[in-house]
Design brief:
354 residues, alpha+beta, Jelly Rolls, Phage tail protein beta-alpha-beta fold, 3 domains, 13-stranded mixed beta sheet, three-stranded mixed beta sheet, elongated
Length: 354
């Protein structure tokens, strides 16, 4: 199957879909990638998707030993909390579908109570963890300009306006995973032991430490990945077994309608989108105020410093392949300065240079 259907709107639609049944019952890696991408593209359908998963697991699962009183108590509790979305009108395979779905929901939720919700938690993420709000943070950029997002592993993302990023609040996981809707320029802190993965509806990008741009807006006809430094592998959602390797100044474009992939050995110009991809952060005895001003303009994050104290200070170095805060730290290191992040701006503390 090249792509998943767009018109899955009810539990019945999911259960009648061969790809959905194969994913839930067989749990193949390539299916996981496809359904992750589908859920990113259709976040409003996650609840009905989870209900369908619950129902299918009940149909295929093992019975749970409960006493009559436990069944009665749990069923009463669940029915009292059951949402209206469990109601479905048309029949399936001769069953009275509305009644069966309600019963399946009750049984499924009883299984959930009995097993501590572990069945449900294994369905929607690569590392089989819950999407609880306390675990994940969502940043939506509605500022009208790009916004720097600082990740817990010290990586940074320059998130374009109209885009959304979801990432874990903690770093104690085997993978560093983020979910992007829209566009972001990523500068990834090097950590070979923990690969960094960016999921979008159309493309999955995997790196160890590098800088690159991912562009994948839901309603646009083209998605792409551009590499500034390092190497990445890009996997199209419709071809999970065909990753594409990109190196410095290479890019890959995907027609979201045609699913046609085109790889370029040089970065193509995208109006107003890729300026930071082409911008070089290489300095040779450059006055520190000029360096800070360039970074502030490029990342749309204010950098506050004492112009008088730093006017004699200079910086020499190449900062293309390090995250935003690492750039600030290295500059401060050369001048025995320090910094802090306060109210989404950088404050520089320095004694200046003689």
């Amino acid at each position: 199957m090249d792509h998943l259907p767009e018109n899955l709107s009810t539990v019945e639609d999911f259960l009648e879909n061969d790809a959905f049944r194969a994913w839930v019952l067989e749990r193949r890696t390539e299916d996981r990638i496809r359904w992750q991408a589908w859920l990113i593209q259709h976040p409003h359908k996650r609840e009905i998707y989870e209900q369908a998963v619950a129902t299918l697991l009940v149909l295929q699962g093992k019975p749970v030993e409960l006493s009559d009183q436990q069944v009665k108590t749990k069923t009463t509790e669940i029915i009292d909390q059951m949402p209206d979305t469990f109601t479905v009108s048309k029949p399936l395979l001769g069953w009275h579908w509305g009644r069966w779905l309600s019963a399946a929901a009750v049984i499924g939720l009883i299984v959930w109570f009995q097993l501590g919700k572990s069945v449900f938690n294994s369905l929607t993420k690569p590392d089989e963890q819950t999407l609880a709000a306390k675990e994940w943070k969502i940043v939506k950029n509605v500022t009208g300009q790009s916004l720097v997002v600082l990740l817990p592993d010290n990586s940074s993302v320059l998130l374009s306006t109209g885009s959304e990023l979801r990432f874990r609040r903690q770093t104690n996981y085997a993978l560093r995973e983020v979910y992007l809707q829209g566009e972001g320029f990523f500068e990834v802190a090097k950590n070979p032991a923990k690969p960094f993965i960016v999921y979008t509806a159309n493309l999955t990008t995997k790196v160890l430490g590098t800088s690159f741009q991912v562009h994948s807006f839901p309603k646009e006809t083209t998605a792409y990945v551009k590499v500034k430094t390092g190497k990445v592998t890009v996997t199209p959602a419709n071809s999970p077994d065909k990753p594409i390797l990109l190196t410095v100044n290479q890019e890959v474009k995907l027609g979201t309608g045609t699913k046609q992939l085109v790889k370029h050995d040089h970065l193509q110009s995208e109006e107003g989108a890729d300026s930071i991809v082409n911008q070089q952060f290489t300095f040779n005895y450059t006055p520190i105020p000029a360096v800070f001003d360039q970074l502030a303009a490029s990342y749309h994050m204010p950098i506050r410093y004492d112009q008088h104290l730093l006017h004699n200070c200079t910086f020499t170095g190449q900062l293309n392949d390090v995250p935003f805060l690492e750039k600030i730290r290295l500059i401060c290191l050369t001048t025995e300065s320090s910094y802090e992040v306060v109210n989404n701006q950088i404050l520089i503390h320095s004694r200046g240079c003689n």
